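User: For a reading group we're discussing how well predicted structures match intuition. Take Family 2 glycosyl transferase. Before you show the prediction, I'll give you the sequence so everyone sees exactly what went in.
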Amino acid sequence: MPDLSIIIVNYKTPQLILNCLASIYAYTEGITFEILVVDNQSGDNSQAIIQTVYPAIRWFQMGYNSGFARANNFGIRQAQAPLLLLLNSDTLLVDNALASAVRVLQNQPDVAAVSAVQLKADRQLRPNLYTTFGQMRRAFYILPGGEAAERLLNRLMPDPHFADPNQVEWLSGAFLMTRQSVIDKAGMMDECFFMYGEDVEWGYRLGKQGRLLLLRDVQFIHLEYGSSEDNQQHVVTHINRFKSQVQVSQLLWVRKQYGMSAYLVLIFHYILMIPVVFVWKLAVNIRDRQLLFGGLENQRAFAKQVGVFLQFFWKTVFNRPGFYKV
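Assistant: Thanks. Here is the predicted 3D structure of Family 2 glycosyl transferase, as structure tokens, for the group to look at:
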């Protein structure tokens, strides 16, 4: 039996996976592992490309684009090791990170799951990553910048304080290692989620089984958005800071973890912000002596995005089982 089962979900990213696997085999020492690739109906020759180079890889076909949670859950069911690692296809190891993480879980039974610090492709620290539920929830609100708004949100949604500087409330699914025994108690990922938010919701349940640690001395490269040109092209603005799929999933998480009222507050906030952002832009145009209705693309995009959220309103407000895919 291997020490670790590594589960990688593939959607049209054979070269990324080849690079990822090369880094795993180049750097990993002192542990035994198996690698499972779960394919989300890529419709290409990913399997042949990867297994020609790495024939020992265990390959599974989902038969449809099942998203992140369902594909990983399928891999978890096939895994043979007591420890499991969910690893994105667009990741690269830079040292013996897997053995370091395995040792923590083997030596500290009170730890339920671990992750590692994310680096950009240039090996610089990836900034502004959330580690608490409060950070994530505060980012959903579109308020004027400034200390007053920040203080208000921090007071309403405070962060916890842990004695261990490595302890966090949730861990990124890009690199998340846990025990099969923990999953047996916490349950698998919620399969209502298509992509995004599933690791946040899962972190809440994993955290009930023990501490979650972000290992500051363990690092990996996360390229991000390897299979999505749409995400690569997304321009982040103050009012359009999330893609529709991201926010639909995060709203579902808020509903599941914090209840109907917390979800309704966010939805009403977005609806009320539609006239606000339009009036604000019109006022700016008048001040700057521009065309009154010019430059409203960002505001129209926001209104369209809220419309997408509302398509899932009744399902989400009543927390109905389903597949929340935009």
